[in-house]
Design goal:
Blueprint (H helix, E strand, L loop, with lengths): L1 E6 L5 H12 L6 E7 L14 H14 L4 E6 L1 H8 L28 E5 L3 E3 L4 H4 L8 E5 L3 H4 L5 E9 H7 L1 H11 L5 H9 L3 E4 L16 E3 L3 E3 L5 E3 L6 H6 L7 H26 L1
Parallel strand pairs: 1-2, 1-4, 2-3, 6-8
Antiparallel strand pairs: 4-7, 5-9, 6-7, 10-11
């Protein structure tokens, strides 16, 4: 069993769907995917949680590849409000949903080993290779942040992929310490900074496990569609996600996930048709 953690609201359903397609298309192992979500409309009206209907659709997807797989939706609204309400980092560079991973030690039934993935990642190989990395003596394993390891610290990490040793994390109180930093100190990269500066012992992995720029290397396992610096036709930043298919093709010149994205388009249409049908039938 590969235990995966995703976090977000209804607006990133496309990311969860595309990512789980890429994972399940390339492994025979069952997947148990925890999805942390929260209702945070007090901050912004669009911060509505992922619905059970979306979670059930994702559950059917993973079960279609392996009947032992499962998607479990976890509403952590009360935990979020308890820990982070009106903290100085609620309006950080990303949405407050990036903070949800810092609540993992407070959620019941979370396994001792857990692979956290940002929703803007696609997997081009068997994720079991990454999941099987030995982290027994570490709090987590991660990859260096492309720009942060140059401008912040040589071992500064990108928190988009975290292979978490939850047993060790509870012993060292890593997430507890990170939450305390979130509550008390404004940080540029919020969750990422809080994790980095709270870490006692981490394992640094090769960039193929969280590639943040070029997707043309054959050995790359995890492609991260994060914000990046582009130099042509002039220096600028881009932030195209994998479900922005035309931009991925034209701007990023990436076609390695075309089969997955074609499957995504069909499944998304199926989901929307089912939703419309339920609404229509409900009105009768």
């Amino acid at each position: 069993m590969i235990n995966v953690l995703l976090c977000g609201n209804y607006k990133v359903f496309d990311g969860m769907l595309t990512e789980l397609i890429s994972i399940t298309n390339r492994t025979n192992e069952p997947i148990k995917c925890f999805i942390f979500t929260a209702e945070l409309t007090r901050i912004k009206k669009e911060y509505k949680p992922l619905g059970q209907e979306e979670a059930d659709f994702l559950d059917n997807l993973v079960k279609s590849k392996n009947t032992d797989s499962e998607v479990k939706l976890v509403d952590v609204t009360s935990l979020y409000e308890q820990e982070f309400m009106k903290s100085p980092n609620e309006s950080a560079y990303c949405t407050p949903y990036t903070l949800l991973r810092l609540l993992a030690d407070l959620v019941d039934d979370i396994p001792n080993k857990l692979l956290y993935l940002d929703i803007d990642m696609m997997i081009d190989g068997d994720i079991l290779e990454l999941y099987n990395v030995d982290i027994e003596d570490y709090e987590y394993a991660a990859v260096k942040e492309k720009y942060g390891c140059v401008f912040i610290r040589p071992d500064y990490i990108n928190a988009g992929m975290l292979l978490l040793n939850m047993k060790k994390i509870k012993e060292t109180r890593l997430l507890e310490k990170a939450r305390e930093k979130i509550k008390t100190k404004k940080m540029l990269f919020a969750d990422q900074d809080a994790l980095y500066w709270s870490t006692i012992k981490k394992k640094l992995l090769p960039r193929k496990y969280n590639e943040q720029s070029k997707f043309d290397r054959e050995d790359t396992l995890v492609c991260h569609f994060c914000k990046r610096l582009m130099f042509r036709p002039y220096p600028h930043t881009t932030n195209f996600k994998q479900w922005n298919i035309e931009k991925v093709h034209n701007e990023l010149k990436c076609h390695r996930f075309d089969d997955d994205l074609n499957q995504y388009l069909k499944l998304k249409k199926e989901f929307e048709n089912n939703k419309r049908s339920k609404i229509k039938n409900g009105r009768k």
